[in-house]
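hi! just following up on the protien thing from before. the input was this:
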Amino acid sequence: MKLERGLIQVYTGNGKGKTTASLGLALRATGRELKVCMIQFMKGGGPYGEQMAAEKLAPFLTIIQTGRPGWVNKDNPAQADKDLAAEALALAAEKLGSGDYDLVILDEVNGAVSMGLLPVERLLELMAAKPEHVELVLTGRNAHEKVIEAADLVTEMREIKHYYKAGVDARVGIEK
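and the predicted 3d structure came back as:
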């Protein structure tokens, strides 16, 4: 099965669930034997549960982690983080144009742009070059207004209440 028409989706906002929503879409797509590639920006730590699941869903789901372990300094990102983000975007362009995937997810790419790791123009060029039959999903906080404008669907996750504020750390199998 191939997609008749691929669109561009953006999952943004300060609430939990952007990556999770994109993984739900990936699960639905793999159930229909569509090929999915997720490239995770700024997620060099891990392993995350979704990577373990991808191994079980291969060859339909591929997840590629990029970035260094730990957090990126939002106020003064290191050159190494910028270089890794640029490499990840180049890899994304390669995967998007390869013809091998029906759905490409760029997890946390919006955050990479908002932190200054990537220029928004580079992401917009990638969006414009998307093949007609490939779905593209961009996740992460602070989606740039130009990205929102260029997308076909934009969903904002809004935090109302979060257990992190009560001291609950990321839990294995739920957040990681």
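The domain at 8-158 is CATH 3.40.50.300 (Rossmann fold).
The mean pLDDT is 95.
cheers
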